[in-house]
């Protein structure tokens, strides 16, 4: 293997590099234009994408065909078109075809406009992003252009606080050694700053715009992909080859922080960039009820066709018998045969019964969804007054699914947390400070402290601690505060009389600010010195070595020589690593451990602080070995770690700090409520594992009585005697084994996992133990092979081809996926750390695929967009990371805590309302219109309508629509307050209890029985009896059946309405008034005279409904139809099948159970106690400081003076603060 120069990145000798096919030539657009790639068949497009992006679904040409194509995926729309086509045949038509086309057009137009409005918003967002200004090298100078004008191979100049427009190779910057500091909040959610560094050769050679214009390097690298944290390639220039990795690359979406100017070569542009590769496509979202409705439409349509066919066959036989029996009427049938008669009757019956699936139901559907959206937007309990942000329902067709959520996938930074670190408490020499609540943000009176001009206010102030610091008679306290001011990688900049700290992580900044507030002020640093002010006295320490932080060491140290010449080592880190390196254990150490337990229970982030004095002899020996290890070409990191380990022994404990990572208001309470509602919350974050775990404990997602399963625990759970193939990776085999055990040994899901010996140390049964799973993005890649999930393709042909191509490895991959999902869903909490945006979406997709569960994703940044698009419901938080998540979401909230009201109140109500609406719409349709079928048996199967045409037309629009609409808009089983008090009620929606195939079947039978009773009671009454006005005519019979069915439907809705308002009462009254008034209009004599074929029931209602005999028949029908419903309700009450309200009252009467505070069950002296350590820091900053790479000696950068734009004045190099 060739050796690599660590400073220059140059590869010496010959090395077999991977066959990369992505070639980028600097400053040569024509070179990239010539390459094409095949898209499909003979179609090709440019291999190198432009930088313009398009996230919108439609354009001016594709909107109409694509939108109609999407809308006709709804089976109901296809059904309506089929009915309209039937109506175009005059022989079988009952209504002009255009009377049905108009409402269908209205329905399609309403949905189309809704989709158009959403897409216009996406077009505006795309236009704003593509029109952002940037400086592109054109010729020999930089010119301001738009992002969309950038091409692969262009050189772009970026300025401080600007966003990176494409994935670029960093060429150089205004910082020393061409460092560049970026914030990746939009990519991984972290606000910690990360540094990137250019190659030494480009840093030294590209010193002017002329040299930039002459740069002709060639980058050969991997094809565009979605791997955010990896990049492999080479730069070929002037006959040399230089290795490239992710540390040289600036990704699109990063923000340049406190780097005045940098220059980059565009490698991937537009949709080839890594962030865009992680952004999924916009998916058509359909609710569970929508999909069920599509299936029901098919079922109803098939039943309708079978019924029509049976009636048509019967009509053919009846026509034949009628002709033979009544030969004198043969003239009427001389142009037709019984078979033809049956054929025409089949069409007539199909049209006559087609209104069983009424178009008005879907139009009312849309109206209910729209109004429920307004209810969400108008809810003052979800209005964030601080920033004037109301809740907003951006989707108008997903409300009912809010009441069926089973899994919530949440981002961490900006969603659960505010990402604001606050120094809350500390323990020093056996004393805990910061416990009182009445601290004033001022110094003790008469103290004479002089460091206050360095800060605006004291973020942390304990009067006792301030006075102790001022007395300066406690050497441990002095060393504690001195450590906070010395042991860090923070940079400082003085603006006026204010010191501005720029830290690589918010933790570091909080600690340095706490030291400043207590009189130990960090003033300045150079490559080998650090200056602080101790209670007003300036002291300069010589930095001998910085022992850098990394995730394995979990600590950092600084070795300094104080002004008196004494050498001291200051160390801070996790309690688990510091406590085991102490010289001895005494009362103070024991008390500090107890304090750490207290801090951990309060979910504060803790660090232990320790120091020791180092002799000159020990330092001389160690320093010599350190210098030798620093120049090793092999195993350098391992040798340095050994030296660091040697030095960091026999420490003296100084104390511990406790920092609060502030959660958003109400997050723990919200998660607890969601858990009680049987909703599982998973946290998917790009942050480090320690930070994510701390937030998990802080928000009560994790508790101290949980067994934490990490990657190493899962790997240690392999069962002896495994029979898996030897070539299967270890992580695959163990998860597969857990799955096999769970699926083959035991029936209970909880017991199954227990039987796999998930903990070898404690083999006793732990089936009821709570578990939490914590895994990383790398572990997910191992599970998902290449990090991709095989997309589910629809269609018989594709599935057949896929089966033909299936291999054992693919089958095993699917088994691994299912095993992982089974393991994860059996845990009470899941946290996935260091995951990319695409991995977030893949996790959501896996749960949807294998659990068939309804999912919700919530986030606030661009890194959450793919997850939000993939989940069944996407919620965007209007946070600090821009509006990308909100623009792609279905619902927008200002705070995570509003999720409890969105789901437990609005979601549950919406599900209840839609289910009751569907139930009663079907019921009233069957109850009113199935009488047409029974009438056919008494009308010679001639498809003769029973009802007046106007009654059929107005039945679903005016006569019965109002009460059902009221139920769909206003129905509540319990109040909002009770919904939050009893989140267990939410389970009803998860289990599909209110509308399913069983409920539909019962509704169908109920409607059929109502229609049978209404029809045959009237038929029995009219058969041999005559009233004072009614003579048993067809019109009066039709009016009697119609009135009986209508009143029975209204009575059923009245009985089942739980929440009565003035509007509900008004709607029922309006239905009766509509029936009376419109019947009078359509059956008036005047209307009959004007159009006798249209208004063919003159005075029928007035004649029938004024006859006491008919009214008694109607009353009898009403009683017969209502008594069964009342009987069932009475039976449920007697047998103890309580209603929801009764369950609530019973639960409310119980004695409140005492709340149990969960605490760690491990003895406090044990090192197995949970550590609440978290330090969101990146390795490498110590090396930058000691090498002087991040420190600027003069006022200008001597290596590249010609690259600084005229308006840019370099100052002190600094690490930008995440809070800037």
TrEMBL record:
<dbReference type="InterPro" id="IPR036412">
    <property type="entry name" value="HAD-like_sf"/>
</dbReference>
<feature type="transmembrane region" description="Helical">
    <location>
        <begin position="949"/>
        <end position="970"/>
    </location>
</feature>
<feature type="transmembrane region" description="Helical">
    <location>
        <begin position="1034"/>
        <end position="1055"/>
    </location>
</feature>
<feature type="active site" description="4-aspartylphosphate intermediate">
    <location>
        <position position="411"/>
    </location>
</feature>
<feature type="binding site">
    <location>
        <position position="605"/>
    </location>
    <ligand>
        <name>ATP</name>
    </ligand>
</feature>
<feature type="binding site">
    <location>
        <position position="686"/>
    </location>
    <ligand>
        <name>ATP</name>
    </ligand>
</feature>
<keyword id="KW-0547">Nucleotide-binding</keyword>
<protein>
    <recommendedName>
        <fullName>Phospholipid-transporting ATPase</fullName>
        <ecNumber>7.6.2.1</ecNumber>
    </recommendedName>
</protein>
<dbReference type="InterPro" id="IPR001757">
    <property type="entry name" value="P_typ_ATPase"/>
</dbReference>
<dbReference type="InterPro" id="IPR044492">
    <property type="entry name" value="P_typ_ATPase_HD_dom"/>
</dbReference>
<feature type="binding site">
    <location>
        <position position="413"/>
    </location>
    <ligand>
        <name>Mg(2+)</name>
    </ligand>
</feature>
<comment type="similarity">
    <text>Belongs to the cation transport ATPase (P-type) (TC 3.A.3) family. Type IV subfamily.</text>
</comment>
<feature type="transmembrane region" description="Helical">
    <location>
        <begin position="1109"/>
        <end position="1131"/>
    </location>
</feature>
<dbReference type="GO" id="GO:0005789">
    <property type="term" value="C:endoplasmic reticulum membrane"/>
</dbReference>
<dbReference type="InterPro" id="IPR023298">
    <property type="entry name" value="ATPase_P-typ_TM_dom_sf"/>
</dbReference>
<keyword id="KW-0479">Metal-binding</keyword>
<feature type="domain" description="P-type ATPase C-terminal">
    <location>
        <begin position="886"/>
        <end position="1134"/>
    </location>
</feature>
<keyword id="KW-0813">Transport</keyword>
<keyword id="KW-0460">Magnesium</keyword>
<feature type="binding site">
    <location>
        <position position="411"/>
    </location>
    <ligand>
        <name>ATP</name>
    </ligand>
</feature>
<dbReference type="GO" id="GO:0140326">
    <property type="term" value="F:ATPase-coupled intramembrane lipid transporter activity"/>
</dbReference>
<feature type="binding site">
    <location>
        <position position="864"/>
    </location>
    <ligand>
        <name>Mg(2+)</name>
    </ligand>
</feature>
<dbReference type="InterPro" id="IPR023299">
    <property type="entry name" value="ATPase_P-typ_cyto_dom_N"/>
</dbReference>
<feature type="binding site">
    <location>
        <position position="412"/>
    </location>
    <ligand>
        <name>ATP</name>
    </ligand>
</feature>
<feature type="transmembrane region" description="Helical">
    <location>
        <begin position="296"/>
        <end position="322"/>
    </location>
</feature>
<keyword id="KW-0472">Membrane</keyword>
<feature type="binding site">
    <location>
        <position position="508"/>
    </location>
    <ligand>
        <name>ATP</name>
    </ligand>
</feature>
<feature type="binding site">
    <location>
        <position position="687"/>
    </location>
    <ligand>
        <name>ATP</name>
    </ligand>
</feature>
<feature type="region of interest" description="Disordered">
    <location>
        <begin position="1195"/>
        <end position="1220"/>
    </location>
</feature>
<feature type="binding site">
    <location>
        <position position="549"/>
    </location>
    <ligand>
        <name>ATP</name>
    </ligand>
</feature>
<dbReference type="InterPro" id="IPR018303">
    <property type="entry name" value="ATPase_P-typ_P_site"/>
</dbReference>
<feature type="domain" description="P-type ATPase N-terminal">
    <location>
        <begin position="26"/>
        <end position="100"/>
    </location>
</feature>
<feature type="compositionally biased region" description="Low complexity">
    <location>
        <begin position="1209"/>
        <end position="1220"/>
    </location>
</feature>
<feature type="binding site">
    <location>
        <position position="863"/>
    </location>
    <ligand>
        <name>ATP</name>
    </ligand>
</feature>
<keyword id="KW-0445">Lipid transport</keyword>
<feature type="binding site">
    <location>
        <position position="860"/>
    </location>
    <ligand>
        <name>Mg(2+)</name>
    </ligand>
</feature>
<feature type="binding site">
    <location>
        <position position="572"/>
    </location>
    <ligand>
        <name>ATP</name>
    </ligand>
</feature>
<dbReference type="GO" id="GO:0000287">
    <property type="term" value="F:magnesium ion binding"/>
</dbReference>
<dbReference type="InterPro" id="IPR032630">
    <property type="entry name" value="P_typ_ATPase_c"/>
</dbReference>
<keyword id="KW-0968">Cytoplasmic vesicle</keyword>
<dbReference type="Pfam" id="PF13246">
    <property type="entry name" value="Cation_ATPase"/>
</dbReference>
<dbReference type="InterPro" id="IPR008250">
    <property type="entry name" value="ATPase_P-typ_transduc_dom_A_sf"/>
</dbReference>
């Amino acid at each position: 293997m060739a050796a690599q120069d660590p400073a220059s990145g140059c590869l010496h000798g010959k090395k077999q590099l991977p066959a990369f096919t992505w070639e980028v030539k600097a400053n040569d657009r024509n070179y990239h234009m010539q390459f094409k790639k095949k898209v499909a068949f003979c179609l090709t497009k440019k291999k190198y994408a432009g930088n313009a992006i398009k996230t919108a679904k439609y354009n001016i040409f594709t909107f109409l065909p694509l939108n109609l194509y999407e809308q006709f995926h709804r089976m109901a729309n296809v059904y309506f078109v089929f009915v309209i086509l039937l109506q175009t045949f005059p022989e079988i038509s009952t209504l002009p075809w255009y009377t049905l086309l108009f409402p269908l057009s209205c329905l399609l137009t309403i949905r189309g406009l809704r989709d158009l409005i959403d897409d216009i918003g996406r077009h505006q967002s795309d236009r704003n992003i593509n029109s952002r200004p940037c400086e592109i090298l054109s010729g020999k100078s930089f010119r301001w252009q738009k992002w969309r004008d950038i091409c692969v191979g262009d050189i772009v100049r970026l300025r401080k606080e600007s966003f990176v427009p494409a994935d670029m190779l960093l060429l150089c910057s205004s910082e020393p050694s061409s460092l560049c500091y970026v914030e990746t909040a939009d990519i991984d959610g972290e606000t910690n700053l990360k540094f990137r560094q250019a190659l030494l050769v480009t840093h030294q050679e590209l010193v002017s715009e002329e040299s930039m214009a002459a740069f002709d390097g060639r980058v050969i690298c991997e094809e565009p992909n979605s791997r955010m944290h990896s990049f492999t390639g080479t730069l070929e220039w002037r006959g040399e080859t230089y290795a490239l990795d992710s540390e040289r690359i600036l990704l699109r979406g990063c923000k340049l922080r406190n780097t005045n100017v940098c220059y980059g070569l565009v490698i991937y542009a537009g949709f080839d960039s890594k962030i865009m590769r992680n952004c999924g496509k916009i998916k058509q979202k359909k609710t569970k009820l929508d999909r069920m409705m599509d299936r029901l439409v098919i079922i109803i349509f098939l039943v309708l066709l079978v019924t029509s066919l049976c009636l048509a066959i019967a009509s053919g036989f009846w026509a034949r018998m009628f002709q033979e029996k009544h030969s004198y009427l043969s003239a009427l049938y001389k142009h037709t045969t019984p078979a033809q008669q049956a054929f025409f009757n089949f069409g007539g019956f199909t049209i006559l019964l087609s209104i069983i699936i009424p178009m008005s139901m879907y139009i009312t559907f849309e109206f209910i969804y729209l109004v429920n959206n307004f209810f969400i937007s108008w809810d003052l309990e979800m209005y964030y007054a601080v920033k004037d942000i109301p809740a907003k329902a951006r989707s108008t067709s997903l409300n009912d699914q809010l009441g069926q959520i089973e899994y919530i996938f949440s981002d961490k930074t900006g969603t659960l947390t505010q990402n604001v670190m606050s120094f809350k408490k500390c323990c020093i020499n056996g004393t805990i400070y910061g416990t009182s609540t009445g601290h004033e943000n001022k110094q003790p009176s008469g103290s004479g402290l002089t460091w206050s001009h360095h800060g605006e206010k004291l973020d942390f102030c304990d009067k006792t601690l301030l006075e102790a610091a001022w007395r300066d008679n406690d050497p441990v306290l002095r060393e504690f505060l001195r450590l906070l001011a010395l042991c860090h990688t923070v940079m400082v900049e003085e603006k006026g009389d204010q010191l501005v700290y720029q830290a690589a992580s918010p933790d570091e900044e909080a600690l340095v600010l706490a030291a400043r507030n207590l009189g130990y002020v960090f003033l300045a640093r150079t490559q080998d010195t650090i200056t602080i002010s101790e209670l007003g006295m300036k002291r300069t320490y010589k930095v001998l070595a910085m022992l850098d932080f990394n995730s394995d060491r979990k600590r950092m140290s600084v070795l300094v020589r104080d002004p008196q010449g004494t050498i001291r080592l200051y160390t801070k880190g996790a309690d688990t690593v510091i406590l085991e390196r102490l010289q001895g254990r005494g009362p103070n150490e024991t008390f500090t451990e107890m304090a750490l337990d207290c801090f951990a229970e309060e979910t504060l982030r803790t660090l232990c602080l320790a120091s020791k004095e180092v002799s000159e002899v020990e330092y001389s020996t160690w320093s010599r070995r350190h210098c030798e290890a620093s120049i090793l070409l092999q195993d350098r990191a391992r040798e340095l770690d050994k030296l660091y380990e040697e030095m960091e022994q026999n420490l003296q404990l100084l104390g511990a700090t406790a920092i609060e990572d502030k959660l958003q208001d109400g997050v723990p309470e919200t998660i607890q409520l969601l858990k009680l509602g049987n909703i599982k919350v998973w946290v998917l974050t790009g942050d480090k594992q320690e930070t994510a775990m701390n937030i998990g404990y802080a928000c009560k997602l994790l508790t101290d009585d949980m067994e934490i399963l990490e990657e190493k625990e899962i790997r240690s759970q392999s069962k002896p005697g495994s029979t898996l193939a030897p070539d299967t990776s270890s992580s695959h085999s163990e998860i597969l084994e857990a799955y096999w055990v769970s699926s083959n040994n035991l029936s209970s899901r909880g017991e199954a996992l227990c039987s796999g010996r998930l903990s070898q140390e404690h083999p006793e049964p732990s089936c009821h133990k709570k578990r939490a799973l914590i895994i990383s993005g790398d572990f997910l890649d191992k599970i998902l092979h290449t990090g991709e999930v095989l997309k589910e393709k629809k269609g018989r042909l594709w599935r057949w081809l896929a089966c033909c191509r299936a291999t054992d490895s693919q089958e095993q991959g699917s088994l691994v996926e299912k095993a992982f999902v089974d393991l994860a869903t059996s845990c009470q909490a899941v946290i996935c750390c260091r995951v990319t945006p695409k991995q977030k979406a893949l996790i959501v997709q896996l749960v949807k695929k294998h659990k068939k569960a309804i999912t919700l994703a919530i986030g606030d940044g661009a890194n959450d967009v793919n997850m939000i698009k993939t989940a069944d419901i996407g919620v965007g938080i209007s946070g600090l990371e821009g509006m990308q998540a909100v623009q792609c979401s279905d619902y927008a909230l200002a705070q995570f805590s509003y999720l409890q009201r969105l789901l437990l109140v609005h979601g549950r109500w919406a599900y209840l309302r839609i289910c009751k609406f569907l139930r009663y719409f079907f019921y009233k349709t069957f109850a009113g219109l199935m009488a047409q079928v029974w009438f056919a048996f008494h009308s010679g199967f001639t498809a003769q309508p029973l009802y007046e045409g106007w009654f059929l037309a107005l039945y679903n629009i005016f006569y019965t629509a109002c009460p059902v609409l009221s139920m769909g808009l206003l129905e509540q089983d319990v109040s909002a307050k009770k919904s939050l008090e009893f989140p267990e009620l939410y389970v009803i929606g998860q289990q599909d209890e209110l509308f399913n195939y069983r409920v539909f079947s019962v509704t169908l039978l109920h409607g059929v029985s109502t229609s049978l009773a209404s029809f045959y009671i009237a038929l029995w009454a009219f058969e041999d009896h005559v009233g004072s006005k009614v003579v048993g005519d067809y019109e009066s019979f039709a009016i009697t059946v119609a009135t009986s069915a209508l009143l029975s439907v209204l009575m059923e809705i009245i009985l089942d309405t739980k929440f009565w308002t003035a509007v509900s009462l008004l709607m029922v009254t309006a239905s009766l008034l509509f029936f009376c008034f419109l019947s009078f209009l359509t059956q008036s004599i005047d209307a009959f005279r004007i159009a006798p074929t249209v208004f063919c029931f003159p005075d029928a209602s007035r004649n029938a409904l004024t006859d006491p005999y008919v009214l008694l028949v109607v009353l009898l029908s009403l009683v017969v139809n209502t008594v069964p419903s009342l009987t069932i309700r009475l039976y449920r009450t007697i047998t103890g099948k309580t209603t929801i309200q009764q369950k609530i009252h019973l639960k409310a009467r119980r004695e409140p159970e005492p709340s149990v505070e969960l605490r760690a069950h491990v003895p406090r002296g044990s090192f197995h106690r949970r550590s609440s350590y978290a330090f969101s820091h990146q390795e490498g900053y110590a090396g930058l400081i000691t090498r002087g790479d991040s420190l600027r000696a003069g006022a200008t950068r001597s290596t590249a003076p010609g690259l600084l734009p005229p308006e840019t004045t370099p100052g002190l190099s600094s690490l930008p603060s995440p809070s800037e």
